[in-house]
Amino acid sequence: MSTSIPALCSDGQVLAEVNGCLGLIILNRPQALNALSLAMIRDMRTLLRAWRDDDSIQAVAILGQGREGKGPAFCAGGDIRFFHTAAKAKDPALGDFFTEEYALNHEIHVYPKPYIALMDGIVMGGGMGISQGAKLRVLTERSKLAMPEAHIGLFPDVGGGYFLAQCPGHVGEWLALTGQVLGAGDAIALGLGDVFVRAEELPGLIEQLRHADQTSAEHVVATVMERAELAPEPQLLAHREAIDRHFGFGAMLEIKASLAGDNSEWAQQALGQLNANSPLALAISLELVRRGRNLSLAEDLRLERNLVHWCFEPAWRDAHCETLEGIRALAVDKDHQPRWSPAHSEDVSPQTVQAMFESPWAKHPLADLQ
Ligand SMILES: C/C=C/C(=O)SCCNC(=O)CCNC(=O)[C@H](O)C(C)(C)COP(=O)(O)OP(=O)(O)OC[C@H]1O[C@@H](n2cnc3c(N)ncnc32)[C@H](O)[C@@H]1OP(=O)(O)O
C-alpha cells in the first residue's frame, strides 16, 4: 500500500505529515490548548489506522501546536465546553465522544508501531489519554502533567483508572483525588514519562523528524534519544511516605481526616485541593483507582464508560449534574465557585457510588475492546 494521508474532518484542528517512514500528527487548536474535539478524535483514529496498515510508515509521532506568546500545550484534555453545550442540548454526540475517545486511548496503548508523544507544556486529562499509551513519552522542563477531573465533578478517565493504578504505593490515589500537577522529574520517576529532552532542543528535534530521511522505526527512536538527557530530580516525591500514609486509607472521610490531623504545609495543601473538588467525584475516583489495580486496560475503559454515562445522566433529566456544574464554574461562567451536591463527603451515598460503576447497556459500546 502506498504512503498517503487520508482525508481528515476537523477543519485543520489536526494536521498530518509523512516524512520518510514517520507519520506526524500535530494537534492544531492552540487557542483552546489543543483540547480534543470529536472531529480531532476521529482524525487521529483515521490516521492511526491508515498508518498502521501502511508498510511504508514505521513510526508515528504526535505533538501540540504552541500558543503565540504563551506557554506551550500538548493537550489540555477533552473539550469541556463541548461537554457542557452538548449535555445541555441532550446531544447524543456527547456519548459518541466518550466511546470514540476511549477507543482511541486503547488503540494507542496497543499500537503495533512506535508511537512517540512529545509532551511539552500542558498535558492534562484527555492529553494524558493520548500520551500514556505511547512507546516513548518525551517530557521537557515545561511539561505539566495532571488528571484534574475531580475539579470539574468528573473522574480520571481516558484510561486513568488503569495508568494511575500502576503508580507506586498510593500515588495513584493522590494524583486522582488532588489533581496535582507533575513536572518532568516527578512524572518520569513515577513511570508517567520515559525520557527528558530540554525544551530548547525540541525545535531542532522536530525539524530533524520532519526533514531528515527517517528510514526505520529504530532510526526515528534514535533521533529522539540522541537529544535525551538525565531527567531533573523529582521534587514532590520527597512526600512519598506521607502520600502512602494518608492516601492509603479506605474511604474519603478517613483520607480527609488523616490530612486534617497533619499540620505540615504539604498535608494542608493537599487537603485544600481535596476540599475544592466534588465530593461525589472524589468518591468515584477513589473507587476507580482501587478497582483499576485488578483490571486490564479494556476492562477499565468499559468501567469508565459506565461512569461517564452516569456522570452526565442527570443532565438528560434536567436534574443537578455535578459535572456540568464543575465545568460551568471553571470554563463557562469562570466564577470558580462550584455548588457541589452533595457538598460534603459525609453525605455521599456508597450505594450511589457503587451503582455508577454498573453498565446501563445491554450491549456495552466498548464490548469489542480486548
Ligand atoms: C474524556 C476526557 C475528559 C477530560 O479530558 S476532562 C478535561 C480535563 N482537563 C481540564 O480539566 C483542564 C481544563 N483547563 C484548565 O484548567 C486550564 O485551562 C489550564 C490549567 C490547563 C491552563 O490555564 P491557563 O494557562 O490560564 O489557560 P486558560 O485561559 O484557562 O485556557 C486558554 C483557553 O483554552 C480553553 N481551554 C483550556 N482547557 C480546555 C478544555 N479542556 N476544553 C475546552 N477549552 C479549554 C480555556 O477555556 C481558554 O479559552 P478562552 O481563552 O476562550 O477563555
Automatic annotation (TrEMBL):
Q: What class of enzyme is it?
A: lyase
Which keywords, in A-to-Z order, does the entry hold?
Answer: Hydrolase, Lyase
Which InterPro entries does the record match to this protein? ClpP/crotonase-like_dom_sf, ECH_dom, HIBYL-CoA-H
Q: Name one GO biological process term.
A: L-valine catabolic process
What molecular functions are annotated in GO for this chain? 3-hydroxyisobutyryl-CoA hydrolase activity; enoyl-CoA hydratase activity
Matching Pfam families, A to Z?
Answer: ECH_2 (PF16113)
Q: Show the SUPFAM superfamilies listed in the entry.
A: ClpP/crotonase
The UniProt record lists the EC number as 4.2.1.17
| Record has Hydrolase as a keyword | yes
Sequence ranges assigned to domain Enoyl-CoA hydratase/isomerase in this UniProt record: 23-357
Q: Which PANTHER family match?
A: 3-HYDROXYISOBUTYRYL-COA HYDROLASE, 3-HYDROXYISOBUTYRYL-COA HYDROLASE-RELATED
UniProt-recorded name of the protein: Enoyl-CoA hydratase
